[in-house]
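Structure in, sequence out. Go:
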């Protein structure tokens, strides 16, 4: 049975400034780099290695993965990108609607994506990754909203964390086309860090 470690990137400048960050990008902060180093230490301590590593094509996800894995030799996939917030990209987060229901169709009117589009592309991308990989453990670095919608696609009646910690990750097993959720981990708050 294969395992998927689905991680959010480290803290970015836009996270710190409270700006909307979907398809636009901003660099990791020093804190974000430190979070990635803590995640790397967590995996080392727990003797977890990854036979396959994949990141969203966005800089913040790639930089996080490169710190954790210590390599630039990994797969990048556009289907793992964050939700497209259209004209809200780069604006203050206080302008966004509140609550996940508001996100279902709101951004389509402003050139962005619907929640259903994000759910479908994340699910299709992760099924393809897990079906084609031969690795027992796969690390995928993506984004908070994209991971939230992937979880909601799998478990529409469950309530996932609305905000995954930077460098936090969800662990799933994958077998015969099905994902099974195991746990959510914040390696930056591990008692042994």
């Amino acid at each position: 049975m294969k395992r998927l470690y689905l991680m959010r990137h480290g803290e970015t400048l836009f996270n710190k400034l409270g700006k909307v960050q979907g398809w636009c990008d901003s660099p990791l902060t020093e804190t974000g780099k430190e979070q990635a180093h803590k995640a790397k230490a967590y995996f080392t301590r727990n003797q977890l290695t990854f036979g396959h590593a994949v990141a969203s094509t966005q800089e913040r996800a790639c930089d996080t993965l490169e710190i954790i894995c210590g390599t630039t030799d990994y797969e990048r996939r556009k289907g793992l990108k964050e939700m497209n917030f259209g004209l809200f990209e780069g604006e203050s987060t206080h302008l966004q609607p509140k609550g996940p229901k508001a996100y279902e169709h709101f951004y389509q009117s402003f050139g962005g994506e619907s929640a259903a589009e994000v759910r479908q592309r994340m699910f299709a991308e992760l099924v393809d990754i897990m079906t084609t990989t031969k690795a027992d453990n796969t690390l995928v670095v993506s984004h908070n909203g994209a991971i939230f919608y992937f979880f909601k696609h799998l478990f529409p009646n469950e309530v996932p964390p609305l905000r995954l910690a930077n460098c936090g990750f969800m662990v799933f097993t994958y077998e015969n086309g099905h994902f099974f959720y195991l746990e959510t981990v914040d390696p930056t708050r591990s008692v042994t860090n």
